[in-house]
Fold this protein.
Amino acid sequence: MTIPVSTETLDLAAKFPGIVTPDEREGYSGWIVKADELAAFAASLRDDLGYDFLSSVTGVDYLPEKKLEVVYHVYKTTGGPGLVFKVQLPRKKPEVPSLTPVYPGADFQEREAWDLLGIKFTGHPDLRRILMWEGFEGHPLRKDWKEPFYEEDIKPYSSRWPEGKHSYAEDRNPFNDNVQFPKQFDPEKWVPEGDAALYGALAEYRTTDEDGLDTDHIVVNMGPQHPSTHGVFRAVITLDGEDIVSMKPVMGYLHRNHEKIGERNTYLHNMPYTDRLDYFCSMTNNHGYALAVEKLTGIEVPERTEYIRVIMDELTRIQNHFILIGMLLNDLGAYFTPALYAFEERELILDIFEAVAGSRMMCNYFRFGGVARDVTPEILEKVSALAFDRLPRKADEFDRLLTENEILVSRCKGVGRLSSEDAIKYSMSGPSLRASGVPYDIRKADPYSIYDRFDFDVAVRYNGDTYDRYLIRLDEIRQSLRILQQAIRQIPEGPIQTGKSTYLTKTPAGESYGRIEAPKGELGYYLVSNGTGNPWRYHVRAPSFINITALESMVVGGKIADFVIVFGGIDVVLGEMDR
Amino acid sequence: MIDLALVLEWVIKSLVVIFMLLGGFAYLTWFERRILARMQTRVGPNRAGWQGLLQPVADAVKLVFKEELIPARADKVIFVLAPILTVVPATVLAVVIPFGTQVILFGRQVNLAVADINVGILFLMAVASVAVYGIVLAGWSSNNKFALMGGMRSTAQMISYELALGLSFVLVALMADSLQLSEIVEAQRTMWFVVLQPVGAIVFLIVTLAEVNRAPFDMPEAEQELAAGFHSEYSGMKFALFFMAEYQKMIVISIIAVTLFFGGYLGPFIGRFPWLGPVYVLGKVVALLFGMVWIRATLPRIRYDRLMDLGWKVLLPLVLGLVLITATGILLADEFGNSLVWSIPVVSILAGFLTVGLVDRSLRRKFNALR
């Protein structure tokens, strides 16, 4: 039951009479805004009240009430708790004004809500499907949408539990009933309607020079198969020679509808699925999700567990940033040497994950109100050897070898600049936001877990270019080491789990938004419970996905070689972007 | 007088050079992969044969049996021609290089060079430039935008760096007073040219890196930007030919660098044992190749437009200045005594430092303007 503190003191209903009413449902918080007045309300929130950072936009399908709800989470970049406001729409014709004029960072998230829930955002500049393919029929997160191998709404399915007699979906004829097409769909004649819109969105340009020669731009598809898009990301780029004239991102090639799966699952079922979001940082993914469920159920977390969680989070951050630096150098063309140096450190950290969780990458380590296994003194010894000796040394080594390198400096400095205003505007979060001069770190701004007990600084850099995005990773590694060292010194003995760990967590009806400072940015989980053992709505605010909103403004005007490093410097993982 | 034995000698020498390059190419890949691995805290190929020595054979077998694809709308003739056009000049280059003086073999005086022609340097320049056609045509005929951009980059790069390369050849020709490679080597009996013209040697090494498209100047294939650049669409043996050309060029260009600046086949006891010549060449070439691999393992890629800047605005003026310095130094030495020849390295090094300082200053200014 998350109740942002600010709503206690802030009476928006009095400030906006007739437009805003408090959300008085059991377990809910925030404000309900009239759809017509939304844009004016949001502008006033941003300009008068200082809620300048739009964290999340998503929708919920309340099928029994025949309503669709759009949920907005906004925060102040100066810190403090956030504000939730909602717009309720009829399920028949859900239309809501787009917030992109007020918060440009809503762009992709509104497209996602349109794609998955069919909520129409009027005034959105480019409302196309974003995760599903263009010819897809229906909106999969609607509660009355059924997938091809649909059995039941929620797990455990009665065919499998408790008797355990089940048939595998793969055993059925896969060519008849596992694909849904619109009626009269003919794959031979189908032209993806999105392509015309996509290429149309790129700037049209054709000139004739004095000799009568036509000059045209080249449209290049970087991806979905390309060595430097870090996965199946696709960027459609228009080039004038080697200069980028315009860029449009296309994603969804790795989409598996994580959220629909999550709504079928029980709460605990979802934990291993979160590992697969940002597969470099499964520990932090676990943490965000555990936090959201704990907020919903009100489970307290034991002292020792909080320390273990912080240790794991910071180790995750360190290895993620090492890899980022290594891969950024790889994008610059350094033939794998920095990357492999980084991987060497990462392997040592993964050894620790393996020791505590049993798995190196897909840790599945956190539980609601605890963690899966205790950390033995031997493991702690290993962690402290890393935290006090090896990792600080290696961070310095990276610094010494790379920071002053002429080629690195000349290729990164001034490339892909993002001003602090733009960074906030585009809902950029994490290290990329801080590299643009906004000292916003959820660990300090809105502390969760026990981060308020540690003495550390928020790393911040002011130029907002790729070089600063490189430097800030080194700074953050050093700050993480400080936290790690304090946590190792202070970790108390005690239980690691509140109560008995159960397979079936029941939650009271309500909503919760758990957000943490993941290595890549703000990772948020929005949960709506209807009082059963399965989430009614499960939404992931993925930093990789939302940070890409600003990419276009960062690369246009640069060279094609710059696109690669700007993209690498933002730090994205496709598992999380496409979900 | 051309008799049968002479023809036979030529044929045998040509075959030796060709097989040396082929074998050298194969084992250069192994050498590079092992060195890279050591530098990257890995092991490298060590499964096929002792220490992975059969790895090149395994690679060759794999590449030969791979399916060869020709893109549907590619220009087929040029597409097939391009790899051949790239690999032939890389091989032909090696014919003018002297690997030693003369040895007695089966009662014959045998020159350890296939064709020691008197315009050796010109021949090198001419043939080396032909190789770029293969790359451009490959990029053009592939019907692929990335390949086209790779081809374009390589043309621009070649044009920019050919000038500096030609001028550093001029440096050597000035110092040796000859265009014939064997005479250039003989002129280094007293002193290697790298001592006399150290800055020139450094410029030459930088330019050759660009000439053979090695890191940090591997623009045409720039994996992270252009997928694989000009050879994106090539597979199987055609790809192997490009690969072969690149590595053969590396070897040949190292031999040329050794010949021009590092005393070629010269070394201790060469007068008494002429057979040591090829051994010395090999040793020096391996050292240079190691340097190339080391650079590849260390440095990120320079951006394309900065590469052009470096070629036109830094290296070309520098090497022009070096030509002036060298010519003046030689003239002074001729007029006023031999010891004045030392003015060449001293002034050259000063010019080198001046250039580095100016580049550093302009970069600093640029970055300060960004703040």
